[in-house]
Amino acid sequence: MHSPLTLHRHPMCAEIIEAFQKCHVDHPLKKFFGECTDLKIKLDQCFRQEKALKRKANFEESKKFKERLQAYKREMAEENKES
């Protein structure tokens, strides 16, 4: 099973998605007997790479957010000490 094959959600995999969908259209019965399996494997690999890049970007973003949160907490603690 794969995620929905929308090009705007998976720009990195657009070529493979188009080829996979074309294979399904061109081979309506053979697709059930492995005609499009090679493209499916490439598509799965592409989705994994895409997910890894998104995961890394989200992790970096969360690190920046944690740093800002820690700085804000220190600032609030200093203001409370001054009061």
TrEMBL record:
<keyword id="KW-1015">Disulfide bond</keyword>
<protein>
    <recommendedName>
        <fullName>COX assembly mitochondrial protein</fullName>
    </recommendedName>
</protein>
<dbReference type="InterPro" id="IPR013892">
    <property type="entry name" value="Cyt_c_biogenesis_Cmc1-like"/>
</dbReference>
<dbReference type="GO" id="GO:0005739">
    <property type="term" value="C:mitochondrion"/>
</dbReference>
<comment type="similarity">
    <text>Belongs to the CMC family.</text>
</comment>
<keyword id="KW-0496">Mitochondrion</keyword>
<dbReference type="Pfam" id="PF08583">
    <property type="entry name" value="Cmc1"/>
</dbReference>
